[in-house]
């Protein structure tokens, strides 16, 4: 909305036809000034993904901005998880998955044959939908990554503490580091998984619906944490919770799925990508507007 509309029309008056009023006002203290174009850490160019013969995702072009949170939203089955998994070559591990197009990280193609997928996944870490701590102690969960990759750390104890502090979990676990991770609540387990991811010093953190199994309080802890982590990391999050996308993300990519006329198979595509405040207040595509106003999906 332009500044004039706010001053000339009284809310609720006939002048205020609300034609350009936000559909879903992002309830955010997250209205940062962003550059119009993200300064890209990662980029997808004409990304297509197939599972066997099934064309799951069609021609996605996206840029993920440094120290920004980018949300991927859209109805179930539109390919959000598929796209996210492409960003750290997790689809390499999915039988039948094939990726075409380019995924660049600091300009380099992560699918280049000379690139080590393990190193890709260290730089571009992932947090899953359901907290998946290892059957180990809290300490050993966080120390796992640095140990496995032989990371040089001055002092493992303080490294583990740092990761737990960054994940806003330290105060809750500092007296029980040797206890099993399974004794923690769901929300604590998810923050532990975030601590485990950041312990190997990634650059980008991918999160696939990280709050979908959590209660509202645990969810708000994770959302606060994401906003803090944005200072140090680039975050890409899949969420089906639009309020969450509105609350935490800087930019939003809206996907949908289009059925193939002959097979009926639904192929995912990117409809619109913009600053979150624009997507939620003034989207340019009808399909985005229908989705965020709850008329579809
Ligand atoms: N491992 C897989 N094998 C075959 N098809 C898959 C696989 N994973 C996802 N799909 C299909 O790809 C499409 C996109 O799925 P997904 O990326 O999980 O969507 P979203 O995360 O948006 O719900 C869906 O039709 C889904 O059934
Ligand atoms: Mg998914």
What does this structure look like?
Strand 1 and strand 2 form a beta hairpin. 41% of the residues are buried. The protein is an alpha/beta fold. The protein has helices at residues 3-8, 80-86, 117-123, 138-148, 156-166, 170-173, 186-198, 216-229, 242-248, 276-281, 286-292, and strands spanning 40-51, 54-65, 69-73, 97-105, 108-109, 124-127, 204-208, 234-238, 251-259, 266-275. It has 11 helices and 10 strands. The protein has one domain (39-292): P-loop containing nucleotide triphosphate hydrolases (Rossmann fold). Helices cover 31% and strands 25% of the residues. It binds adenosine-5'-diphosphate (ADP) and magnesium ion. Adenosine-5'-diphosphate binds next to strand 2, helix 2 and strand 10.
Task: Name the CATH architecture.
Answer: 3-Layer(aba) Sandwich
The CATH C-level name is: Alpha Beta
Mean pLDDT: 89
Helix-strand string:
HEEEHEEHEHHHHEHEHEEHH
Q: Which bin fits the share of residues in helices? A: 25-40%
Any idea what the radius of gyration is?
A: 20 Å
Beta fraction? 15-25%
How many helices does DSSP assign?
11
Bound molecules: adenosine-5'-diphosphate, magnesium ion
Structural class: alpha/beta
- The CATH topology assignment is Rossmann fold
| Major sheet attributes | 10 strands, mixed
Give the total of beta strands: 10
Poorly predicted sequence stretches spanning 5 or more consecutive residues:
1-19
Termini separation comes to 26 Å
Number of domains: 1
Strand order of the largest sheet: 5-4-1-2-10-9-3-8-7-6
In one word, what is the shape?
Answer: globular
- Give the full name of the CATH homologous superfamily: P-loop containing nucleotide triphosphate hydrolases
């Amino acid at each position: 909305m332009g500044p004039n509309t706010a001053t000339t029309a009284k809310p609720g008056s006939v002048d205020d036809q609300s034609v350009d009023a936000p559909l879903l006002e992002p309830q955010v203290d997250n209205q940062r000034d962003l550059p119009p174009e993200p300064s890209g850490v990662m980029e997808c160019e004409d990304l297509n993904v197939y599972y066997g013969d099934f064309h799951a995702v069609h021609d996605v072009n996206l840029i993920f901005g440094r120290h920004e949170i980018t949300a991927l939203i859209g109805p179930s089955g539109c390919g959000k998880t598929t796209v996210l998994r492409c960003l750290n070559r997790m689809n390499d591990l999915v039988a039948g998955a094939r990726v075409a197009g380019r995924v660049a990280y600091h300009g380099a193609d992560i699918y280049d044959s000379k690139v080590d997928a393990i190193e890709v996944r260290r730089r571009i870490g992932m947090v899953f939908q359901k907290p998946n701590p290892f059957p180990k102690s809290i300490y050993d969960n966080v120390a796992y990554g640095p140990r496995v990759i032989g990371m040089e750390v001055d002092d493992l104890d303080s490294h583990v503490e740092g990761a737990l502090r960054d994940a806003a979990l330290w105060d809750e676990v500092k007296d029980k580091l040797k206890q099993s991770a399974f004794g923690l609540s769901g929300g604590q387990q998810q923050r532990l998984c975030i601590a485990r991811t950041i312990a190997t010093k990634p650059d980008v953190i991918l999160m696939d619906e990280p709050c979908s199994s959590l209660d509202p309080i645990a969810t708000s802890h994770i959302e606060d944490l994401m906003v803090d982590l944005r200072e140090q990391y680039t975050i890409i999050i899949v969420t089906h919770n639009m309020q969450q996308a509105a609350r935490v993300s800087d930019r939003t990519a809206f996907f949908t799925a289009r059925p193939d006329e002959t097979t009926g198979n639904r192929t995912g595509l990117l409809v619109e990508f913009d600053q979150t405040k624009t997507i939620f207040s003034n989207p340019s595509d009808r399909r985005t507007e229908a989705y965020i106003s709850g008329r579809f999906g």
